[in-house]
């Protein structure tokens, strides 16, 4: 399939992202002395920034690629929640279906950085199941949105939005409407993602999710992928393997190894979000699995060459692919 035509088709797609949204806050500063109260550095703050984290960053990748993104999630009735909605709006991400829960805070992860080094990270969150009423609202919003979209991403960070009931409902509706549903898995929930179109674990997630041992060779990875397919009864699995690229295995047992397209690797933060976003958009645009994985691989190669949680644009993808095939 022509990858450039595929990228052009992205702007006609709309994707529903279901999962745990959060705010990533960065406090930047400099260190000039050690505290007299304890053997810790004193950070003098120079600036503060906030970005979308979790499922919000997945949605950000969708809109960056020119498509429309909807988010179904649950946040608290607090200032952080207001900040998150504002961040979604700034990125042209539809937040009309985000549910508010008065009993849970909006997740915020605060990183204090000095001299380009992370000094400490502070998380404010409550994990676990949401109230039954909140879960029902999430399911209702999913039911309303599914007929409107071309693809679904389940972005599970294990905070509670992707409950067993939500997962069952999403997969059943996606099958009904014949749209692809992809999963960025959480290790502890790995074996619950049954009958999805594609699951995109990295090597660590694939090994630990299946409680596998002695995985080292390409053959080991391929066999592990086949076991994942059999266990989940899914259509395909795309295992991302850092410098070794990706391994795609479909339900017929066909294996496609795709070497990395990264020229330089500065930061792998958010690369998984870019992979699943690009892969899902390609499948939504009716691409075959191999073409979808190839374009996702090019996107990952671009994003790891950037510092921090980054996204990819259609222009960047077009340029990279054109130069590669010259």
UniProtKB/TrEMBL annotation:
CDD domains: RfaE_like. One of its GO terms (molecular function) is phosphotransferase activity, alcohol group as acceptor. Keywords: Kinase, Transferase. Residues 13-314 form the Carbohydrate kinase PfkB domain. Gene3D superfamilies: 3.40.1190.20. InterPro entries: Carboh/pur_kinase_PfkB_CS (IPR002173), PfkB_dom (IPR011611), RfaE_dom_I (IPR011913), Ribokinase-like (IPR029056). GO terms for cellular component: cytosol. PROSITE patterns: PFKB_KINASES_1. SUPFAM superfamilies: Ribokinase-like (SSF53613). This is ADP-heptose synthase. The gene is rfaE.
